[in-house]
Amino acid sequence: MNKVTASGKTVEEAIERALAQLNTVREKVEVHVIEEPSRGFLGFFGSKEAKVEVVRIADPLHDAIAFLKDVTSKMNLAIDVSAEDNDAHTVLHLRGDNIGMVIGRRGQTLDALQYLTNIVANRAHARRMRFVLDAENYRQRRLEALEKLADRLVEKVKRYRREIRLEPMNPLERKIIHTQVQKHSGVTTYSEGDEPYRRVVIAPREGK
Question: Does pTM surpass 0.85?
Fold first, then answer.
């Protein structure tokens, strides 16, 4: 519910009633006064209450959550969405049954939803927000798996002195590999190819 009409003896009372229905605060709504209160004849007969229309001001976070709930509903999934802010972005945590459908193979569905959420949520707002989608802590589990993969491949590169090309990854996952490999001496990394098939290459460092 994003818009309500409420009445009260005064405009302020009508607004307070509307805010209670929307479960929000004055700073997050627009108020339109439909009718001013009037006392009527002799202060009693024909008196009218104030009537206001209060509209919730949409913001990127509100639009992001609404979009995700709409999409997952059409997937016949009952998903709960909660937000967690940090300095760089807002994480939207998705929880519910059959969450694997939201994650997809190697997170591809989750990444696609994240891309669309950022477009939809920010298209009508001057204040932009960056959203990262996570589902049942998938991002952390994937990060740990990629770090372990990088460590194993570094040892192979050192042992056989040959480059190893990884499977295509998105920019965030490539960054995880690059960062983890930098913790090891004697090896380096670079990326090759074009999106969405760009991949990381782990190579022996010359002279090492």
Answer: no
Query: pLDDT confidence of 88, banded at 50, 70, 90?
Result: confident
Q: How many residues does the chain have?
A: 208
How far is it, in rounded angstroms, from Cα 152 to Cα 179? Answer: 14
Considering only residues 146 and 124, tell me which one the structure prediction assigns the higher pLDDT. 146
Spatial strand order in the sheet of 199-204: 164-165, 199-204, 187-192
In the predicted model, is pLDDT for residue 44 greater than 60?
Answer: no
